[in-house]
Amino acid sequence: MRKEFVLYLGILAMACGKDSPKPPEAALLSFPLQNSECTTGVSLNNNTSQVEFRWQEARYADTYELKVTNVLTGLSITNAPTTALSSFVPVLKGTPYKWRITTRNTETQEIGFSEEWFFYNAGTQTTYPPFPAQLIEPASGTPVVRDLNNEITLKWTSGDADNDIQSYEVYLDTDPDPQQLVASPSVSITQVKASVAIDTVYYWKVLTLDRAGNISDSGVYSFRVIR
């Protein structure tokens, strides 16, 4: 009996000592830079240039998948998984894009996602509209609880290749196409308070305005106030 018990402990120790599969970590993006104008692409024709996307090696990652999305149309290009740390993609000139890297390995079903970076592919423009604001809070479709003043906080982030954002316009409404302007903060402010009613679905968006008169639209998010 004692020998069987010792054998059981040995097997248990071996099982506990075996390393669990490690999920791939997120890749760190290198180029094109966040909120930049990419001027290094190789011109293919009047409308398109080929841009090299680069990222850093991620721990426990076997392959990397590049996804590049046209911000104006929502159309994406997704490259086949690769072991390389760069990839060339043809993109339209004078057009805003966002890109990210998905990491995978053969040991686990878990995947890693990099940050999502925005850039303008250089064209003939001398000025670019701001990148659409990224709505952070409340996340779309989430339940929201009011504070003691019956208000909630709307938060967003933004960027601009020209670095000339002037202000924002924040719209909040019960209509899916929000038209009620609730705040017009300056460039240094990226969150505002707004009064809301209980058990109500709201829709919100942010317009970003720059000093050249360009405007970008974040698109609409929704949330429900539950109490």
Automatic annotation (TrEMBL):
PROSITE patterns the record matches: PROKAR_LIPOPROTEIN
Tree of life domain: Bacteria
Gene3D superfamilies: Immunoglobulins
InterPro entries reported for this sequence: FN3_sf (IPR036116), Ig-like_fold (IPR013783)
Protein name: Fibronectin type-III domain-containing protein
Organism for this UniProt entry: Muriicola jejuensis
